[in-house]
Amino acid sequence: MKPLLTLLLLGAVAAGCASSGHLGDATGAVGPTWTLVALGDDAPEAEATLTFGDDGRVFGTTGCNRYFGSYALADDGALTLTGVGSTRMACPPAEMAQEAQFFAALNGAQRVVVTGDRLALGTSGPPLTFRATPGASADATLTGTVTYRPRIALPPDAVLSVELLDVSRADAPSVTLAETRVGTDGAQVPLPFSLDYDSADVEPRNRYVVRAEIFDAVGVLLWTTDTAAPVLTQGAPRDGVEVVLAQVAEADPAGALVGRSWRLSEIREASGLTLSYEGEAPFTLSFGADGRYNGRADCNRYGGAFEAGPSGSLRLSQGLSTLAACPGPSVSEDFFEVLNDVDRYALADGRLTLSGPGGALVFE
Asked: Each residue of 307-318: pLDDT tens digit?
């Protein structure tokens, strides 16, 4: 039987006595983008990256999804990761398998050691080995702003992600030359950004674009690039680039939510811990055209009224719930703790994410 809850993402990974500061610049760990070259003794199936920002944030890709969180590095290289979350896009089996290995190793991360252009992430299992990505010796900077047209305020803890990509080959994945992820700290659009890159990586014949996304604090995608902004070559700008985003939520909230039954796949706690629900008991949610919602939570049923706004806001009034004692372990308490705090929704890639101060629930 499958375990009821499977740890997917990281809550807190503590090792040694880490301080709140970062590793000194002499180590070279902070700043560059590091590309995975080995998972233990195995070569990676897809490009995965790791970046320690100088603002205390860690981010990168697993070869499938993007991840992000906070870190601290002690003077002796002891590592602590906290509040790590991830996007949850489905990928080919080989990439999903790599992602599972990557997160399992990251979950046991204990120490960082940099030797030349290599970074070794010591873990409780097989180590992760990275190489400094071309462009890590940045000698040029691309600047611009990220904005959107609707007059909608961002949540104060929103996170901005910006990437510089080589998209020259239509038959191959884009190549990341630079990326940054920063907290907005209450700021509103337009949001300024700067990307440091190595000018030697830029080929005049190639095509380059900037892509940006804005997430909430628990990793729910709020705004994304629907038309990438050309940069650097073929007459495109190097400074003052404007990246215009589109809202992820549907324009017609009632029409977007109603008409189907959503089944729980993840519970994301406010602490940053994400749990994948794999239990046999159903946790479902349906929205009706009459403004009421209902569903099952293990062996119980619940329901109430809802109001959805065009900006992705959502208000759930607490209704009635049966109180049967369900057999075996249950995540009902965790489910309702997050559900009762929901104030926002997002629809993307066939998934519905309900989020609020208490965390997020992801349905499929």
From this structure: 877 567 788 886
